[in-house]
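Checklist before submission:
- one chain only
- standard amino acids only
- sequence pasted in full

Submission:
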Amino acid sequence: MPKPGRRGVPPVALLGVLAAASLLAASPALAKPNRVALVVGVAHYETVNPLKNTVSDAQLVGAALKRLGFTVTPLIDPERKDLAAAIAAFAQQAQGADAAVIYFSGHGAEVAGVNYLFPRDASNASMDKMIASGFEASRVREAVLQAKAVRLVILDACRDNPAQGQTISLKGGLARETGGLTTQVVTLMAAAPGQAALDGAGDNSPFALALIQALKRPRLTTGELPRFVQSEVQRQTNDRQSPDLQGIWVDIYWSFDGKAPDRGRAQADVDAQARGKREQAFWQTIRNSTDPADFQAYLDQSDRGEFSGLYRPLALNRVRVLADQSRTMSVHATPPPGGPAANALTQARAAFERADYPGAINAWRTAANQGDPAAAYNLGVMAFTGRGEVKDQAQATRWFAQAAKAGHPGGMVNYGLSLLNGYGVAADQVQGVHWLRAAAAAGLPSAMGLVGQLYLQGQGVPRDPRQGAAWLQKAADAGDEPSMLDLADLYERGNGVRVDHKAALGAYQRAAAAGQGAAMVRLGYAYEDGVGVDRDLVQAATWYQRAAEAGDGEGMSALGVMLEGGRGLPQDFARAADSYRQAANRGDARGLLGLGALYAQGEGVTQDDVTAVSFFQRAVDAGSVAALRNLGVMYEAGRGAPRDLAKAADLYRKAAAAGDADAAADLARVSRR
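Returned file contents:
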């Protein structure tokens, strides 16, 4: 499977700059959003087996959308003609709307790669009658196409087989479709392709309940909706059901929360970056914690909309695992309720959540002086990162040592790493390995992954790729998301394991589900190139979009490449520029290169050579070889900078030395002048 940055952006041409395209239109800041929804529930079929809770699910979803400011059209137990009329009327209603959502809860099935939704008068007397009485899902997608920001179809139609008891052979569940509008409209299915959705034990299905929970979240964005629904359904069903997603959003920052301020796309990207950095910093601080309350604090902040919930599945798993361990392992036990250490920990956690880092440090010191190892560990993290106090690696190592010797696995990991790398203490590889092994033996997933890396690199232990792969497998099985990504890379390269692209794909899928944006990008590459899975450009674009939603710059630029080239998506230079800009804001070299090329060519943005040169230079600084050549083109032609053949030749020379064959020809041409 290809590695990061393997897809380039076409270099700018010396001549033939195209006419400038118009800029992205900005919505008036005070415009009232127009939100429309069609909610369909079918339960009482005439000849097909009835369904248990589809109508109650539709009513629940309709009420939730109405509370969010949607104009909701309910449709219960319609015949085919009524469904067709409602879809046609909704298509008119959706034209120019800010958001258009269709929710269908009822029977559905795939026939020859086409998904059909079945109204009340559906017939299962024969295959022909079954198809004739169904309604193609593609026609539902057409009805939301003219909405401006959100085009969403939710198919809760993966129920039991509508042909049950008949001789008709239908595949279970729905399928991913290709072509047509599949990328322009986002489709969220209740279950994975070919998988049946569960009804649940109560009046509503797990999928509907998860959807409602998601819609209640403050500041919920388009990208966060499917991510939350998928993790919650998997949790509720113990991984027996996994909702599926395809398509890309028009605006990844659009919020379902009608009270959330609309600050425009540029400011929304800035806000998303800031929130993402806070979330990542919080997660990195607690990921090795042994206190379930730390992970519950993360979940609470996510539920309040302060975090996107990127690491929600991991936090839920850690709460469960640590709760189980606390019943059997004394090192994980929390201080007695009401004691000085426990009270101090509660105060510290509250201070840390509100970003009062000095207050958190003071409270942790109180708990650490009472002998609490978790407090010592947290003080080490604060000293190491310089959060709330001056960065002091030596002091951090002393705190980690105190936590480690008191049996705290996170302290063992960080003390071991300090010894291995000489952070604030004399390097001692033997002792460093000892403490990492101790943390792994205590059940800390990240420690297992680090031991695996030691064997892969031969640091402190003899190099042994097989042992390394085995440890990474243990870590991945225990839920360590970086190890899932590393394990997938081993399967791709055949390092310590045999080459197995399907196994790599599975590891990437697990890492993506755990919030790893880099894994989402690799899944996109796999689907785009057909490595380990059938080639599917719709799924490729979907995974690039999901990586972008997770704040991954490479996912943003990969999506930009598809939009610019019309690869699997309608060619759209303006949206390509938007994706490249988001990637460029995160320092992604391909995003900087792509945006520079669009400015040079006047595609999707107003043509501007000076700005193009600026982006090419930033791309060079970020390590882009293609940008070296593009910058050389600009200096050779005197575009955006004074004409300078010597500088152009130097840039071509560097690009050629880095393997750009075209740059070698450019260098030869300039040298003859």
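Reviewer check: Residues 1-5, 13-32, 329-333 have pLDDT under 50 and may be disordered.
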